[in-house]
Amino acid sequence: MEMVEETLRSVFGFEAFRPGQREIVEAVVAGEDVLAIMPTGGGKSLCYQLPALVGDGLTLVISPLIALMRDQVRALEETGVAAGALTSANTGDESAAIRDALRERRLKLLYMAPERLGRPDTAEMLARAGVTRIAVDEAHCVSQWGHDFRPDYLAIGAMREALGCPLAAFTATADPETQEEIVARLFAQPPRRFLRGFDRPNLALAFAAKDGPRRQVLDFAAARRGHSGIVYCGTRARTEDFAAALAADGHLSLAYHAGLDPDRRREAETRFQREDGMIVCATVAFGMGIDKPDIRYVVHADLPKSIEAYYQEIGRAGRDGAPAETLTLYGADDIRLRRAQIDEGNAPDDRKRADHARLNALLALAESPVCRRIPLLGYFGEAVADGCGNCDICRDPPATFDATVAAQKAFSAALRTEERFGAGHLIDILRGQKTEKITARGHDRLPTFGVGQEFTKGEWTVIFRQLQGLDLLRPDAARHGALFLTEAARPVLRGERRLTLRRDTVARAAKARARGPAVLAVSDADAPLLAALKARRRALAEAAGVPAYVIFPDRTLLDMVARRPRTLDEMRSVSGIGDKKLERYGAEFLAILSEGPDQ
């Protein structure tokens, strides 16, 4: 490990491991099979890159997206590491150069997409190249029922057997079921497992009921102008709509979805990687391959499909460890849509039940009256004793009330109308509204007619949304979203269980919009210096044709501002500056630090 620690400093510019990295690196260096569950931004890539550099032979890295592989190779090359990627995006000359390097055994890391594993010549080529270990990134993609399933990941186990080498698998999102599937499909024997926690303390978590989603997103982005962000949308059309609205409001914004031609998608990926302050409005087709560390926020304009998808997507913010924010908007329509997608799918019944349970976990998080991290981390098997202090619930605890009687009234209205109607009609019954639809069906003569006048229509709407969120009422896709009682509702209906709900209001959502953003730790006095360092970084990145963070991530620039090194030796102590980067860029950045931003 002495050689590992020296490589950590001299190549990557870090004086110490992040929490949890050392034990994993030791196991990989020792040739053990490893399954590591680490939070996004926790430094997974270093856990296989370091062993590759200090060990013999070639490390094969299986990674899901071309953009991710190419960016990681560029970042490694900037530090002086011999790395390459064989992808369909390579030119003929690029592929030929990498094959020559493999034959001559000059590479330490080779990145490859899982689709290439099925080619008949791949195993022979890798065996000749001297592969001594395999690293699998985003290992949850092997799960056939996961949110990012990639069928070609199923070939990894056979490739491991053919090469006869140890394998280390890494992911940030894997519940116990997915972990077992990873072990079964990738390993011959049980690997050594490392569960390094799912928490991302730097991420501020927030949910808000939809109240004009376009305005909510515009308000949120306006308070964070100049920062990079992702806005996830449920449909392709909404990505275009939100991108246009943000552009009209003066933001750099682009739409991204699978319906765009490949050139436009590549342009969006490239611009997002290289331009400061860019916002991408995207479907879930965007993100897994984005290794941009300084994304300052992720907004879901529509409810994600599961808690795993939610956690994977918000994990793209704040990978540099600096403060970042998340906001998820949701409403009853989202719940109906997600339930319908599960019920109308082709999965077997046991899988549909599991998918409803996953959605329930996300909805419980959305409607939580306690610290968001308690249900979120609890889902992944991690206990939280106290509030986190970095979510909307901790900052502004919601008022709650005993909603047992209100829920009983809602359930009774659904049962007495044979569970054939949606929330709007049931609310009219409870409120005693003699609409044409109600009188035509005789629902004004029901015992529940008018029994809920203590709540306004808006308050009943919030109650029904929470009842759906807690899966006590569920929309029936086969009957146009009519609400029916689940078994979990029966104890509440019979008075055997008390029910507490949040007294949600539109004012609470407005308060969330008005709250100031999380900011990077730089004073007003130091802001011009940081801007000058970023400008120099941007010029160097454009000249090299790489994303800005490949030159230096934001955290390195912030550390420069904080330390104000005066010599190259002092510059060496800045986090993220190894020997090669000090040689290439040290003098240029030192000049700005010495002379000031106006020089």
CATH architecture type of the largest domain: 3-Layer(aba) Sandwich
Helical segment count: 27
Low-confidence stretches: none
Across the major sheet, the strand order is 3-4-2-5-6-1-7
Q: How many E strands?
A: 18
The amount of beta strand, in percent, is: 5-15%
Average pLDDT across residues?
Answer: 88
Characterise this structure.
Keywords: ATP-binding, DNA damage, DNA recombination, DNA repair, DNA-binding, Helicase, Hydrolase, Isomerase, Metal-binding, Nucleotide-binding, Zinc. It holds the Pfam family HRDC. This is DNA helicase RecQ. Its cofactor is Zn(2+); Mg(2+). It catalyses: Couples ATP hydrolysis with the unwinding of duplex DNA by translocating in the 3'-5' direction. The protein is α/β, with parallel strands linked by helices and 599 residues long. It folds into four domains: 2-195, 3-Layer(aba) Sandwich (Rossmann fold), CATH 3.40.50.300; 203-395, Rossmann fold; 400-503, Winged helix-like DNA-binding domain superfamily/Winged helix DNA-binding domain (Arc Repressor Mutant, subunit A), CATH 1.10.10; 527-595, DNA polymerase, domain 1. It contains 27 helices and 18 strands. The strands form four sheets. It has a seven-stranded parallel beta sheet, with helices on both faces. Helix 2 (21-29) packs parallel to helix 3, helix 18 packs across helix 20 (457-469) and helix 23 crosses helix 25 (554-563). The longest helix has 18 residues, at 349-366. The chain is globular and about 85 Å long. The mean pLDDT is 88.
